[in-house]
Automatic annotation (TrEMBL):
The gene is LOC106116011. GO terms for biological process: pyridoxal 5'-phosphate salvage. Its EC number is 2.7.1.35. This is Pyridoxal kinase. It catalyses: pyridoxal + ATP = pyridoxal 5'-phosphate + ADP + H(+); pyridoxamine + ATP = pyridoxamine 5'-phosphate + ADP + H(+); pyridoxine + ATP = pyridoxine 5'-phosphate + ADP + H(+).
């Protein structure tokens, strides 16, 4: 049985051949930050879905079951962390809930980080019947949850119009048994900045996140992976974890944008030019420079 001191993550997310979303966005940063990562790819597509042509296939539920069974039979199913992102159906999400329970039989202290990918900007991009499975089955199993504002509103059935509303939503998520609640992005800022909020056991912090004039794919997956890593490395110092996560993310996003604008100075940037520059920013992932400080709000 694998129980050495190296943290070990099982990450169940989407996969693309080209570009950075899902496991492609999460695995490299986790490895760079000292984690052993095993990954199961829920889909394997040529690119993410913002491209014109999408080719590839979807992992069937029985195929996922086989992969997990193989890990268990070979006794390589000891993990310190479990990370999930995009799930395509309610059945696959229920299956993930079953996997969490099995992994906790091997390690009761397993930390589950759930990124409940459902939509953004008031629009769902998964089937609507996924919502009750997240809300009632999966989310209560999580130790850390990283929804955006819209996803947090969906899960709680509460609207966020101001900071006070955001704190009520966070309390409602804590009431479901989640130790650490992170709103990875909210629309509570101004024209220049969004606001991110992280809350755990009596401490709640907000941080400003500069807006960039482009649409990125994979930033939520990267956020969840970085937050998992820094929560572990800082022994759950929520303020420092939020600062390190945002510092890394913003440096990568800005570098990606600047390089894209060198190639296309004006107009909408096409997907191929706005793929996150993870490899080129390996040193940033390892040691981000904090320029934006988190402020205690509760």
């Amino acid at each position: 049985m694998l129980t050495d001191s190296t943290p070990r993550v099982l990450s169940i997310q989407s996969h693309v051949v080209h570009g950075y979303v899902g496991n492609k966005s999460a695995v490299f940063p986790l490895q760079v930050l000292g984690f052993e990562v095993d990954s199961i790819n829920t889909v394997q597509f040529s690119t993410h879905t913002a491209y014109k042509h999408i080719k590839g296939n979807v992992l069937k539920n029985e195929e996922m079951e086989e992969l997990v069974q193989g890990l268990m039979l070979n006794e390589v199913d000891y993990y310190t962390h479990f990370l999930t992102g995009y799930s395509r159906s309610p059945d696959s999400l229920k299956q993930i809930a079953g996997i969490i329970k099995k992994l906790r039989e091997k390690n009761p202290d397993l930390i589950y980080v759930c990124d409940p990918v459902m939509g953004d900007n008031g629009k769902m991009y998964v089937p609507e019947d996924i919502l009750p499975v997240y809300r009632d089955v999966v989310v209560p199993l999580a130790d850390i949850i990283t929804p955006n504002q819209y996803e947090a509103e969906l899960i709680t059935g509460m609207k966020v119009n101001d900071l006070n509303d955001a704190l009520k939503v966070i309390r409602a998520l804590h009431d479901k048994g989640i130790k650490t609640v992170v709103l990875s992005s909210t629309e509570l800022g101004d024209e220049k900045n969004m606001i991110g909020i992280a809350s755990t056991q009596g401490s709640c912090y907000k941080i400003e996140i500069p807006r960039v004039d482009a649409t990125y794919t994979g930033t939520g997956d990267l956020f969840a992976a970085l937050f998992l890593a820094w929560a572990h490395r800082t022994q759950n110092d929520i303020k420092l974890t939020l600062e390190k996560t945002i510092a890394t993310l913003q440096t990568i996003v800005k570098d990606t944008y600047d390089k894209a604008r060198e190639k296309q100075p004006t107009g909408k940037i096409p997907p191929a030019l706005i793929e996150l520059r993870l490899i080129q920013n390996k040193a940033v992932i390892e040691d981000p420079v904090i320029t934006m400080k988190a402020v205690k709000i509760a």
